[in-house]
Amino acid sequence: MKAETMIRERAETAQGKAATEPCLIVKGLTKRFGGLVAVNNLDLTLKHGEILGLIGPNGSGKSTVMKLIIGLERPTSGSILLDGEEVAGLPSHKIARKGVGLIFQHSRPLQRQTVFENIKLALLPDSLLKLFADPEVDERTRAIAESVGLGTVLDRRPATLPFADLRKLELAKAIARNPGVVLVDEPFAGLTQNEMAAFADLIRKFRAEGRAVLLVDHNVKSVAALADRVIALYLGERVAEGTADEVMRNETVRRVYLGGEIQTHARPEASFRDTEPLLQVKDVSVFYAKAQALEGVSLHVHEREFVSVVGINGAGKTTLFNAIAGFVPFSGEIAWAGAPLCGRSAAAIARGGIVQCPETRELFGELTVRENLDLGGQRLTRAESDEQRSWLFDLFPILKDRQRQNAATLSGGEQQMLTIARALMTRPRLLILDEPSLGLAPVILEQISGALEHLRRTTSITVLLGEQNVTFALPQADRVYVLEHGRFIWEGSPARFAEEMGTGYL
Amino acid sequence: MLGRLVAAPLFWFAVAAVAVAALLPLWVSGYVLGLLTIAYYFGVFSMSWDLLFGFANEVNFGPTFLLGLGAYTAGIVDNRFGLPIWICIVLGTLAAIIAGLVLALPALRVSGPYFSLTTVVAVLILQNLIVVFADLTGGEIGLTVPDVISIDAATNYWLALGFMVVSGAILFTLSRSAVGLILQASGQDKLQAGALGFNVTKHKLVAFLISAFFSGLGGALLVFYMGTASVSALIDVSIGVQIIIAAVLGGRRTIIGAAIGSIFLIGLTEALRPTGELATLIVSIIALLVVLFFPNGFFGMIARRERA
Amino acid sequence: MLSLQILIDGFAVGALYALGATGFTLIFGVSGVLNLSHGALMVAAAVAAWAAGSDLGMNSYAGAAFGIAVAVVLALVTYGFVVQPIQRSRAIRNEEREIFILTATLLWGIIIQELIAYFFTSNAKTVVPIIAGVVDIFGVRTPANEIFTAIVCWLAIALLWLLVNRTRAGKAVLAASMNARGVTLLGIELSWIYIAVWIIYGVLAGLAGVLLGMFLGVSSYSVGPLTGSAFSIVVLGGLGSVTGSLIAAYVVGYIETLTAYLISPAYRFIPSLLLLVAVMYVRPHGLLGRR
Q: Are residues A235 and A196 in the same domain?
């Protein structure tokens, strides 16, 4: 009973306060991790009864901002005022007790406890002496569970619950003590369309209850549908702020997400002479614990073809590539050069000619550029390895200059070039590139794009490219797939993509 | 809470077991009582270990550090100053608590294997110090204390049984309480616990101190039962391993399992006595098999069947 | 002359510690395992070499080779039957795997120790040295065996360095210790690398054990202290850093020798343990530790 009165009171106060004081004021927030600037001089304000959306590609600092606000990371500089009180730099348990709740991106329930105990935990005081909770705690636990739709599963353990219920559990924990500010980190990842709608309703309820909501997600469309205001981040800085429509039409934002002008040099599919596609993916699904990352996807790549898979972060590109490369189990079929791929170890698949350049690059930081390359050429003879290496130095001249430098000391663009060069040292038949353009400046992107073009023209290599940046993905592509939320929603030529999807993509 | 406790079948089973145990001196020889006395003390050591591991998720590879300090401090104070036994015991326990604090400080700053490393190092240091300051500690031969609590096997037995039951009750209640829930969260997911408003450091520190208290008190009591203390009996790493294995055998995070595992292990060692030198070998092999193939221990297997 | 004596003895002791610690660090750096049966492997190698000499009548060289072979076999058994089952077990949570491996290898070490004591008694044994006699170095009379020990240790370490830094296979191992996934992406099977590393570890531990057997002698009681000192050295130097282990080995070797000569042999372990405590408090990741 007390909880409901509190909520009603807050909603009324919020409506009264609506246009006046913000409850969260962030000024000049900066966070450096060594040399990397994750958040740069960010300002934002948040009012009661408002949903503020934070969007931006991977690495733009969205999650870091959330962690800074709730105290899981300490800011390098800047101020965070919560209801007029400075909280920047306080430990998370103190900030949480002042009325901030965080719904984590990845569900992290206590596996050995029931749903009831998980929610009850959130209601306990931070006391060593209180051995047993007050009886009303049990009542409130039940009430909260009912309000998010978990009333029927209170005695079950998290391992037995479906994915959507686990997300609801995270939500219940975060709002248990009635925080005025709710931080929501990537709520929609892994949910079906229906589940997303239900979740969105719950978030709208927060707003109606007068809470201040900060929402972060990759899925720009979903954020746009919920948020009153949106801030776009890129490389830790604010690049646009306004209503959802305003931000999405903003030039800089579109460039960051889509890149610039789109050019295409596609070869028609009929021009590829193989009878059976070199790589055939049929009806593949992948589950990470409960979350469905891929749902019945099918694609094919012909020998010498250059295929781009376009999709935002979290759409499932990495999962797809990891399934092909043998790093995650999948259901469905993947055939390579006519033979099924399953049952082979990842290293065996790589030896068979499929080499992946993952998003995380996986370079050997303490080895030099040259040593990294030589490791790629392990299975070639000395002569072949030398020849391949000098060919790659022609393709990426900067690597030749830096050949005696440790890989960890290279710039982002140089590291990406090294990743691609090292993969090419193995003389692969299929080269898989996962988001190579991430975090790189346009100048570097042009160099890499040029290298890819050279590859395409002069060698018989087959390329599968996964990208968010459409300008980078399209120029070399012969065909394009669009991946959204684990499913392919479009396939066709780059030219048609530019016509049909260009504007609607974002 | 009390209502639910009285309703649980496990509670009555435990009460029955304790009642039977309390009546054992009527039928059983002094020798068996002696074995069980030691088993009960080691039961407390294992239960303390389980609290720290199962709940705070800190692996103490040197539980003998705390109990050894408690035992030797109590013994040395008795030897040197001839103070009454109960004062020696209090001092021993205090020494162990201070040691627990000292051990906790680096532990709470580091993660991963480094804490476990610290605990092993602590045991090594204690071992070496005891050997070096032999005139104070009796060195490798061991320390003899002039006083014992009692020479009557039954009295000692009941004292040990009582100590184990009370400690077990306290530790078990703690593990199932609200504070226990917070401890579990702190151990399983530090970040989440912080985001939910709990001062993880504070809770883990208290878990350490509680573990240190029971280990130290048990060690001090043990010294005045056995009348001696030595490295090979109390401090050697293999003793520490026995304590850990007992907890694993019984089932981690059950507290009671640790006590049962302890009794089982002492019983097993005794049963293997006729094999002479091979006893340690056989127990170690069994322990290794348990670790490899039955890591959830006795209670773990039961719990699994319950859930399935 | 005392200072020269200390210098020489400390050098030999340090070299022996260095060889043992290098193997220990290698296994941790690549396989991620803190092998607490390390001391048992060393003692097993030494006892095997001794038994080869006294029971089987082999000469010193063959006996040494036999001891090393035994260590390699035990190392592979440790990997295949003690470590791998835990790494693969689905009943153990990921956070708990390391603890289980620590406990299991510790138990395995105890099992080996007890088997040695049972079959060969727990008396100390000295392996017949390969080189006998005494050498005079600037007035200090030193057993030739001691010099031989130091030289062989350093040769082994140098060979290992060459292997890891100058051969293709060795570089793959080095790369695997930095980034296991990177190595897989290039088509190199991790399982082969792990087996290779455990074999190398067996050779290093076996060699260190046999040399120790010739130099100071071993018994089944040596198992614990040997594991303990390798452990302390590796933690001091920084888990995973071979250079750190080498430096730490000499620091500890010299501190121990100094203490033994200047204060008393009984106290020789204390200062290095105190140093370890200091390091744990001030810099828990050791001198050159990575993580």
A: yes
Best mutation site among C86, C87, C103 for testing chain B: the one with the most B CBs within 10 Å? C103
In B89-167, where do the E strands start and end?
A: 143-144
Task: Collect all residues of chain C within an 8 Å Cβ-Cβ radius of residue B285.
Answer: 111
Which of A231, A258, A285 terminates a domain? The answer is A258
Contact B122, B62 (CB under 8 A): yes
CB contact under 8 A, A112 and B178: no
| A196 and A136 belong to one structural domain | no
Instruction: Based on the fold, state whether residues A73 and A59 are members of the same structural domain.
Output: yes
List the structure tokens of A195.
Answer: 């589940």
Answer yes or no: do A126 and B192 touch at CB < 8 A. no
Residues of A in contact with B196 (CB under 8 A): 93, 96, 121-122, 173
Question: Which are the contacts of A265, defined by CB distance < 8 A and separation ≥ 6?
Answer: A453, A475, A476
Name chain A contacts of B177, Cβ cutoff 8 Å.
131-132
Q: What is the pTM of this model?
A: 0.82
Range of the domain at B159: 29-236
Within 8 A of B1 by CB-CB distance, chain A residues are 132
Chosen from A355, A360, A362 to mutate, greatest number of chain C CBs within 10 A = A362
How many domains does chain B contain in total? Answer: 1
Question: pLDDT tens, position by position, for chain A (506 residues)?
Answer: 455 566 666 656 555 544 467 899 999 999 988 777 889 999 999 999 999 999 887 677 888 999 999 999 999 999 999 998 999 989 999 999 999 999 988 888 888 889 999 999 999 988 878 778 888 898 999 999 998 889 898 988 888 888 888 889 999 999 898 899 999 988 887 777 788 888 899 899 989 988 999 999 877 778 888 999 999 888 888 988 998 888 888 887 777 666 656 667 777 777 777 778 889 999 999 988 777 888 899 999 998 899 999 987 778 899 999 999 999 999 999 999 888 888 889 999 999 999 999 988 899 988 899 999 999 988 888 899 999 999 999 999 989 988 898 898 888 888 999 999 999 999 999 999 999 988 787 788 888 988 998 998 889 899 999 988 888 888 889 999 999 888 898 898 888 887 776 555 55
C291 and chain A: CB distance < 8 Å anywhere? no
ipTM (interface predicted TM): 0.82
Q: Compute φ and ψ for A467, nearest 5 degrees.
A: -150, 155
Same domain, A379 and A403: yes
Task: Give one DSSP letter per residue of A212-274, joined into a string.
Answer: EEEEE-S-HHHHHHH-SEEEEEETTEEEEEESHHHHHH-HHHHHHHH-S-----PPPGGG---
Please report whether residue A104 resides in a domain: no
Q: Is residue B168 part of a domain?
A: yes
A263 in any annotated domain: no
User: Burial letters for A232-259: b for 16+ Cβ neighbours within 10 Å, e otherwise?
Assistant: bbbbbebbbeeebeebbebeebbbbbbb
Kind of pairing, strands A479-484 and A212-216?
Answer: unpaired
Contact at 8 Å (CB) between B39 and B222?
no
Residue of B nearest to C117 (CA): B277
Domain that holds residue A133: 115-177
Q: With respect to residue B303, please indicate whether it lies within any of the assigned structural domains.
A: no
* A494 & A369 share domain: yes
Structural domain count of chain A: 3
Chains with ≥3 CB–CB distances under 8 Å to B: A, C
Please report whether residue B110 resides in a domain: yes
Interface of C with B (CB under 8 A): 34, 82, 85-86, 89, 91-92, 95-96, 98-100, 102-104, 106-108, 110-111, 114-115, 117-118, 224, 228, 231-232, 235, 239, 266-267, 269-270, 273-274, 276-277, 280-281, 284-285, 291
Residue A232 maps to which CATH number?
A: 3.40.50.300
Amino acid identity, position A220: V
- Pair of tokens at residue B25: 């001196």
Q: B121 and C104: CB-CB below 8 Å? A: no
* Residue A107 located in a structural domain: no
| Chain B residues lying within 8 Å of A99, measured CB to CB | none
pLDDT tens across B155-191, in order?
888 899 999 999 999 998 888 888 888 888 888 888 8
Nearest by CB to residue C224, choosing from B117, B237, B284, is: B237
Contacts of A422 in chain C (CB under 8 A): 186
A162 domain-assigned:
yes
| Domains of chain C in sequence order | 2-282 (1.10.3470)
Same domain flag for A90 and A129: no
Which of A258, A281, A299 is the C-terminal boundary of a domain? A258
- Mapping DSSP to helix (H, G, I), strand (E, B) and coil, where does residue B160 land? helix
